[in-house]
Amino acid sequence: MPEAAAWAQRELDRIVNDYHLDMLEHDGYLVTQGCDRSDHPHAPPDPTNTQILKAVSALLVESSNSTDVSYHSTQAYYSIYSTLRKNHPGLMLEICNDGGRMVDFGSAAHGDYFSITDTYDPISNRRAFFDASHVLPPAMLEAYVEKWPVPRIENFRYMLRSGMMGWLTIMLDTTTWTAEQHNVAKAEFELYRSTLRPFIRDAELYHISSRPDGAHWDSMEYFDPVRNEGVVFAFRGSIENQDRHTFLLEGVRRGTEYQLHFQDQSSPDKKVTGRELLEQGLSVALPVPNSSELVFVKEIAP
Description:
- The protein has helices spanning 2-19, 66-87, 105-108, 122-132, 153-161, 179-202, 274-279; strands at 23-28, 51-54, 59-62, 92-97, 113-115, 141-145, 167-170, 204-206, 218-224, 229-236, 244-247, 257-262, 270-273, 282-285, 291-299.
- By secondary structure, it is α/β, with parallel strands linked by helices.
- The mean pLDDT is 91.
């Protein structure tokens, strides 16, 4: 109802001002799913078809007017965000609504980036990114990297890189890392800042594998047609005896020669043609399950 929206607007403005916020995350079920009031702007409920359901922390109303209730609630939510942006133009707005399920164009028009899933293991992060990146800019898609079993350093890189294809956030106690893990993380984060983020911001994104399932290989490719270079994120799944896979690339030019650089030196660097990458593919070999490789593809100047 308008009074509730006005209260939420005042409270948000107060919180931002009083605490000098640079970033505000909205997390929770912000769109009302039902209402039994007949004096609100939405359509009235049907008294013969109304249920009161007990949820984890609240009571939910289900009736024939539920869709209209949600519509008015959503419009109020957008209005609050728009006013917040107008009043605080430097404020960064993170959207984390409905457990990462509310990844929609309306929210994208009012916020800066999305937390795309509330489950943070490597396969969940890659699967959520695979899905959301079909329709939204990769730079808007945030993945939280959480603690996950990493018996080998290859598994540690795999964990980090599963959250590095878009907006990366680390959500774990880094003081528990070994010296080796600290050194690897430092190198990975520097590579992310200096090399991967320009691709995430400017390059075309290609889904060059099936949706990740954690068992088989999966991959995503960034390729910048302006610079004529890109990077392939390759992930090996958990299945034993599948230590090699070939991915057909996209975006490269058939008549151009490219230099391949394997970041972890899983294979020797080599020169190939665009035709080979398009028709024969890029072969990646990883001996350890749940491991990864970054393969950089760069035009060789004629």
